[in-house]
Amino acid sequence: MKIILKDPLDMHLHLRDGEMLKITAPLSAKYFSGALIMPNLIPPVTSIEQVESYKKRILQAIGENVFKPYMTLFFKDSYSYEFLKEAKKHITAIKLYPAGITTNSEGGVSKIDSFSLKEVLEAMSELEIPLCVHGESEGFVMDRESEFLSVYEELAREFPKLKIIMEHITTKDAVNLLEKYENLYATITLHHLYITLDDVAGGLLRPHLFCKPIAKRPEDRMALRKAAFSAHPKVMFGSDSAPHPVSKKESLGCAAGVFTAPIALQALCDLFEKADVLDNLQKFVSDNAKNIYSLTPPKKEVVLVKEEYEVEERFGDVVPMFSKEKIGWRVESVL
Ligand code: DOR
Ligand code: ZN
For residue range 234-286, what is the model confidence (pLDDT) as tens digits? Predict the structure, then answer.
């Protein structure tokens, strides 16, 4: 059995910088046509100069591969209309992090509501710049996303023309919210389609599956699968592939993030095929994102075959999801 995926897109990707970028960028660029690049570097990407120089470093790191990095800015409530008007030419979206909620988000926003962020969000709405949000409260870890849903509702209601993307959703309540507001969209990761909290902490602790938002309950995973498997038009694949060196994962104080970029398409084929919905994968990994963001990425065709392959143990000093395990599909060629 074979499938050809056209112009795969990863609409939520952490590539990092420096030596790590040199490992990660070619791995995504090999199989994907493009990706939305997250701005949580140290320091975060908050100026047009930083966007452009980061983009240049990414393009250098991908080598010969054809790949479009769709850049983002790290949300600041101090951005002016004039700045955003200029920035729009250089970016695809702006990513909003609650302060301190995850890796390198200390410079995020401490008060997220429609009143405090009115000026920037009105400007983004008028300029048609999508807002990507890491939607978690500061509450109990399993409830953080659910508690944040009222914030999504308020923003969606108050700024009806602003495209809001609920990033890496993990709960059935978030899936349900898609139906309530026209301007709400979502990304779903590979790992949240695969795992629940049981896989992370139900037996021996598995640090390489620890991420934010934490994986939730079986019924939540079921709702995510239902949305992805049916290629819900408001849902896109966003891997949230988030590499950390092995020393930061297998350590006291494990960093949050699952590294999935090099195995994402193979594992998605496996999952979709087993659910007998392989025909819907094209929409989930590309078409929906093209429609939602109005993108025309470079052409790429990834041919995958149903043949077992063993996942590499490490890429540089990063351990991928399914390290040394077998996946039922492999990439045969990229055209
Ligand atoms: O698990 C995560 N890792 N979640 C995030 O939101 C950020 C990411 C990272 O940058 O490491
Ligand atoms: Zn992320």
Answer: 999 999 999 999 999 999 999 999 999 999 999 999 999 999 999 999 999 99
Identify the domain containing residue 291 by its residue range: 2-334
Residues 188, 169 contacting (CB under 8 angstroms): yes
**Does residue 7 have an active-site annotation?**
no
Q: Ligand 1 site: residues with CB under 6 angstroms?
A: 14, 40, 102-103, 134, 211-212, 240, 242, 256-257
Give the Å distance between the CA of 169 and the centre of ligand 2: 11
Ion ligand 2: residues, Cβ under 5 Å: 240
Q: Which residues, in sequence order, are bridge partners of residue 258? A: 241
Q: Please, is 262 exposed, middle or buried when counting C-beta atoms within 10 Å of its C-beta (0-12, 13-18, 19+)? A: buried
What's the distance, CA 183 to chain centroid?
Answer: 18
Considering the entire predicted model, what is its pTM? 0.98
CB 308 within 8 A of CB 266: no
Q: What is the CATH number of the domain that holds 34?
A: 3.20.20.140
Instruction: Domain count for the chain, please give it.
Output: 1
Q: How far apart are CA 10 and CA 193, in angstroms?
A: 15
Q: Residue 260's CB: how many other CB atoms inside 10 A?
A: 25
| pLDDT in the model for residue 103 | 87
**DSSP assignment, residue 128?**
T
CA-nearest residue, atom 10 of ligand 1: 103
